[in-house]
Fold:
Amino acid sequence: MSLANSFIVYRKELRDMLRDKRTIRSMIVIPVVAFPLLFLGIGYVGAHFAGEAQKEISTVMIQGGQDSPKVLAALQGFSSIRIVPYQSDARQEVSDKTIRALIAIPEGFDAAISSGHAEQLSIGYYEADDKSELAKDRLQKFFDDYRDRIARDALAARGLPTSLLEPFKVDASNIAPPAKVGAAIFGGWIPYLIIIFSFTGAMYPAMDLTAGEKERGTMETILSSPVSRTDLVIGKFLMVVTASVVTAVLSLLSLGFSFAWAKRGILGAAGSSFQISIDPSAVAAVVILILPLAVLFAAVLLAVALLAKSYREAQTYVSPLIFIVIAPAIIGTLPGIELNWKTGLVPILNTSLVSKEILSGTYNWGHMGLIFAMTCVYAAIGLAAAVRMFNREDVLFRT
Amino acid sequence: MIQAVELCKNFKDKKRGDIHAVDNVSFSCRPGEIYGLLGANGAGKTTTLRILATILSPSSGTANVAGFDVVRDPQKVRANVGFLSTATALYDRLTAAETVEYFGQLFGLDSGTIERRTNELFKALDMEEFRERRCAKLSTGMKQKVSIARTLIHDPPVMIFDEPTNGLDVMAARSITDFIRQCRDRGKTVIFSTHVMTEVEKLCDRIGIIHGGKMRAEGALDELRRNYHKENLEEIFVDVSGGAP
Structure:
């Protein structure tokens, strides 16, 4: 083995890749552009539709209540709703979204309230429909206020203090450090995104440098040079790792900038009151832990893509691998999945979990060391497999 | 010098079972000689030449190429061989000069030698005009010249050509056959495979007719004519291949 030869191959592959528009797109443009666009899109669409829904006056029907003018008058005075005449198919109209909610007022409601009997009102709404849920929330709030007012009046009429209604208050506030809150909210998906990007960044070059070379006929050219196949695969492998790490780091930077920008811009006041700070050194630690994973991805992708005769065939082998990467990465983001000796052995999942720990400020050096070492072992096995594949004639010259 | 001794290459195929692509093939080719390996498609020409270029390893038997054994010293063999075939394409995104430089580096040449050799080759092959042009933008003939420069950068004593004129137009094919002749004139050991009879008649000092993986006949063109009592190489070929119409 000669590292000098691998480096010659690496330099050539790097030059070649940097001249390839498809690589530039997958390695640089997509990770850099994806997050700002995602944030902009979500921010814009979210703000737009939330605003639209808030602006809408909820159309409701009232069933019954003819003998209860007080509650009807109060409802008519509620500006966030518009009452339309009751129809017998009101329930259907809620389902059809032609009205947002149906209020059913029992017979003798006003009279029962006056005499101190508990009565039951019902609100019918469409649970999966945001606008209907908004109408329900508005009505709920309206009736809560209405009930409080009646209770307060009743207490006042009996000469009792209104504080009886609320003998004590409960104030719940966050006392955990902002970094931990940030981690709990974002910690799960930051490593997940970096893992996915380090995989997708490696995908294209791995296919291009193996099946792509076979398809274009340059594989035989390079095999006729005196460089050993091991040197050749190491050079190619270094290129794929480079693409993987560059993609992951760029996506992380882009995510950081997008977040900072969104917090000031689109999220506005809500963003600034929601102080999320993620420790940069924790992010750096996560990147270091993801490095051996990038190595594993590069090796596995090279070995798998080399099996194919053409770029297109390689895509059919490599695409399903995305699910193998996404599944453990997603499981890692689920609440309740903790790092233990079992989950610590599962590649990708262990990195996802330990990254979540680190971002929440917990530096368990034992876990980190173990997982780094485990991933290095998996990466070495992957690389050995890729080298072995490159030395197999039936793989290189599959017909 | 090329000396192939009882070369065999077997492949396993799911449908067809064991295939003897090269079956006990022996021959030799001396410096300053062009050896033509003649055979139909699938006869075993490409596999034989790939073994000589150490791109494939033999199942049994061996070959000595430029003083090195293909089984024991494949890297040294490759360092002394220039291998060109229609399957050896160029990197589209590298320029002509970069391609030649890359192969110079892979062959372990220092930068001074690479520069000197590149300049010599580009001048000799009249490639200065497209020196800095990317291979993707070159015509077939230009690409062929870059491939030739690529195989000659390390000035190898042995040249192996696998159907080098396949798919080329008359002019491009002619430049290749001229080049093969020049290699011989410079004392190189040259072996090339083809199924084009006229190329063999024009170029080869000795001919090996391969069929079904086996070497069926060998000798200079005149020897073959005498042995088979036929003037026309095509008829000799058909006779030897056992496929006389």
Observations:
- Residues 174 and 181 of chain A are 9 Å apart (CA to CA).
